[in-house]
Write a structure and sequence with these properties.
heterodimer, A: 251 residues, Ubiquitin-like (UB roll), Fumarate Reductase Iron-sulfur Protein, Chain B, domain 2, two-stranded antiparallel sheet, 14% strand, elongated, B: 215 residues, mainly alpha, globular, binds protoporphyrin IX containing FE, binds iron/sulfur cluster, binds FE2/S2 (inorganic) cluster
Chain lengths: 251, 215
């Protein structure tokens, strides 16, 4: 196991109203098998012992499935490795002597609460506006009694892989939430269970997305490139179609 | 009203961009076909122009429709640009684009404005040219000027860049993105703009280089 020495420049901000700035820290002998968050744990332990405030950051599962973690590492959401969350990024992707700049995910709809901690409840409100199935379908039906072509179910599963981390918004040059919203609309629009509320869902979720102050998509593809779950912009094309069709026939 | 709701949404505005963009591309195809007659001879080109203008109603309806399309495209495009600018590019201390070849998508409003500048020069020069001079003569007179032609070529390059993102982007906005067709789409996204560059740029170069001196 090898170890590296690092210089960290981390965004520190007391609360939503305070002005923040980058603070510089040095960390020695970081094992390359550590995850990025474990490296931050080591830093926080050091800061605590020195009587300073530890760096606040979000995390929960630390296995890439909950969507709580995330930060901008040297300008890239979730860091340099493809299709991993920050908790699954390992220090072996950095070199001895590297300077790493760590900033919180930013968007008009994401107020910074403290340091790297942000308020992503705007994404929750998009889900609350229609990302569910609420029709009463009676008792549990027999397994396989609703036939679903495997291609459809695979596409729905691909969309359902979105963990709501919000990296797509943070990396979008326009701060658009289209990749997230399109994944949440697609996962239900592709399945029979989602059909009853299909149109209202597309209308309501896009309306909420616009209301939260997310930007307009210009098809820049940055979201897809940083998404830790490999959500494809094909979902955005699907959302555009869903929305157009719903608006023409429902609204 | 359903269409007010549609058009005031973020996706609706994209649909205006995509629809007006598609119709403008279709117009450019007919325009390129017409202009290609220049390569045959001034008589053929003059014949085409006279035929076209012997139906003033067609010309009028086309002109008004194109004006409306360009106005919609430019107005909504600049509005979206202004709105997105508010999500400032300086939100991070380090900003890095992960996508390769993002030049065209980042410069859409700028290449668009070059095309707009071109359109005003072009319409001023040709649509409002002196009525007593044959259009085939005006074309030769104006485009034989080296700098006038150079400006045309630069504008066509801007258009090519604009469409090398725009054509794909338009189909994506219409919801057309399928693995079976994506290779074809990416070829068209390169091929159609290059075709425009070849025909329109070719006409400018034809006169600029003196090849068309006695066309
Ligand atoms: C006249 C000045 C023009 C301006 C200011 C302009 C501006 C823009 C802008 C800002 C966009 C990006 C919109 C977005 O992604 O939301 C765009 C997209 C586009 N433009 Fe233009 N443009 C102009 C002329 C043209 C012309 C002449 C054509 C046709 C040949 C054209 C075709 C397109 C297409 C196809 C798109 C893609 C629409 C989409 O993203 O869905 N534009 N334009
Ligand atoms: S689409 Fe990808 S980047 Fe966006 S919230 Fe979902 S998992 Fe995160
Ligand atoms: S902490 Fe759960 S995805 Fe990273």
């Amino acid at each position: 196991m090898s170890s590296i020495n690092l210089t960290l420049k981390i965004w520190r901000q007391q609360n939503s109203d305070a002005l923040g700035q980058l603070e510089t820290y040095t960390l020695d002998a970081i094992h390359t098998d550590m995850s990025f968050l474990e490296m931050l744990d080591v830093l926080n332990e050091k800061l605590t012992k020195e009587g300073q405030d530890p760096v606040a950051f979000d995390h929960d599962c630390r296995e890439g499935i909950c969507g709580m973690c995330g930060a901008i590492i040297d300008g890239v959401a979730h860091g340099p490795e493809k299709e991993v969350t920050l908790c699954q990024l390992h220090m072996r992707h950095f070199k001895d002597g590297d300077t790493i700049v760590i900033e919180p995910f930013r968007s008009r709809a994401y107020p910074v609460k403290r340091d790297l901690l942000i308020d992503r409840s705007a994404l929750d409100r998009i889900i609350q506006s229609g990302g569910y199935v609420s029709v009463n379908t009676g008792g549990t039906v027999d397994g396989n009694s609703i036939p679903i072509p495997s291609q459809q179910s695979e596409l729905a599963m691909d969309a359902a892989a979105c963990i709501g981390c919000g990296a797509c918004v943070a990396s979008c040059p326009n701060g658009a939430a289209m990749l997230f919203t399109s994944a949440k609309v697609s996962q239900l629009a592709l399945l029979p269970q989602g059909q009853v509320e299909r149109k209202q869902r597309a209308l309501a979720m896009v309306e909420q997305m616009d209301k939260e102050g997310f930007g307009n998509c210009t098809n820049a593809k940055e979201c897809e490139a940083v998404c830790p779950k490999g959500i494809s912009i094909r979902n955005i094309a699907r959302l555009n179609k869903e929305y157009l069709f719903a608006a023409m026939t429902e609204g | 009203m359903w269409f007010v709701r549609l058009l005031s949404s973020s996706i609706g505005k994209k649909l205006i961009m995509a629809t007006s963009g598609l119709l403008l591309v279709l117009f450019l195809m007919t325009h390129a076909a017409g202009n290609a007659t220049i390569f045959m001879s001034s008589d053929v080109f003059q014949g085409y122009a006279d035929e076209l203008h012997s139906h003033p109603l067609i010309v009028l309806i086309f002109s008004i429709s194109l004006l409306v399309l360009v106005l919609c495209h430019v107005a909504v495009g600049l509005y979206l640009f202004w709105e997105n600018r508010q999500v400032s590019t300086s939100r991070y201390i380090i900003t890095k684009r992960v996508v390769k070849n993002s030049f065209a998508s980042e410069t859409m409003p700028y290449t668009g404005l070059v095309v707009l500048l071109f359109l005003s020069v072009h319409i001023f020069g040709f649509t409002f040219s002196p009525k007593h001079v044959d259009i085939s003569v005006t074309v030769k007179n104006l485009l034989s000027n080296f700098f006038y032609s150079l400006f045309y070529v630069i504008a066509f390059i801007a258009l090519t860049i604009h469409l090398s993102h725009g054509f794909w982007s338009m189909l994506q906005t219409f919801g057309i993105n399928h693995p079976r067709y994506n290779t074809l789409i990416s070829r068209l996204t390169l091929g159609i703009p290059l075709f425009f560059l070849l025909i329109f740029g070719g006409v400018a170069l034809y006169f600029m280089t003196g090849l068309g001196a006695n066309y």
